[in-house]
TrEMBL record:
UniProt cross-references to PANTHER family, sorted A to Z: ETHYLENE-RESPONSIVE TRANSCRIPTION FACTOR ERF020 (PTHR31985:SF45), ETHYLENE-RESPONSIVE TRANSCRIPTION FACTOR ERF042-RELATED (PTHR31985)
InterPro entries: AP2/ERF_dom, AP2/ERF_dom_sf, AP2/ERF_TF_ERF_subfamily, DNA-bd_dom_sf
Domain of life: Eukaryota
Protein name as catalogued: AP2/ERF domain-containing protein
Molecular function in Gene Ontology: DNA binding; DNA-binding transcription factor activity
Signal peptide: none
Gene3D superfamilies on file: AP2/ERF domain
Main location: nucleus
Domain AP2/ERF: 14-73
Keyword Transcription: yes
Annotated transmembrane regions: none
Source species: Trapa natans
UniProt keyword list: Activator, DNA-binding, Nucleus, Transcription, Transcription regulation
Length: 146
């Protein structure tokens, strides 16, 4: 699936495997290798949440030799299993995406309220998307369930 947006005429950041619904939510899905089946990864409030979900699923399903095509390769947890069923991959990817979504939403809300957060997970809103070169330093390892 390519990263495209539905409806909106404004340019948004592009992430692999992520698209924007016309009402503003971000969605992600991926094809299961060797089948015609699509694996729904979820609907997210942020494109980063959808992108992380896609990265986890892409890695688990396809075991790529290179991480160059992932959106946030540095967020893949060490020891991420690649021998899971599509349903387990779907849950792991969705959980990771939702965790990123929740973290970013709470950080943005706190930033808008003028609060200063003292935890180590930060998101740099000025960073560009794709290729893993972003200020997103949230680890999904804490949110990954086997």
């Amino acid at each position: 699936m390519s990263s495209s947006e539905e409806g909106s005429g404004t340019p948004d950041r592009k992430y692999s495997g992520v698209r924007r619904r016309k009402w503003g939510k971000w969605v992600s899905e991926i094809r299961v290798p060797g089948t015609q089946e699509r694996l729904w990864l979820g609907t997210y409030s942020t494109p980063e949440g959808a992108a992380v979900a896609h990265d986890i699923a892409h890695y688990c399903l396809r075991q790529p030799a290179s991480l160059d095509k992932l959106n946030f390769p540095s967020l893949l947890p060490p020891g991420l299993r690649t021998d899971m069923s599509p349903e387990s991959v779907q849950k792991a990817a969705s959980d990771a995406g939702m965790a990123i979504d929740a973290r970013l939403i709470s950080e943005r809300a706190a930033k808008e309220e003028g609060c200063v957060h003292s935890h180590s997970h930060q998101y740099d809103d000025s960073a560009g998307g794709g290729g893993g070169s972003s200020g997103l330093t949230i680890s999904v390892e804490d949110y990954y369930y086997l």
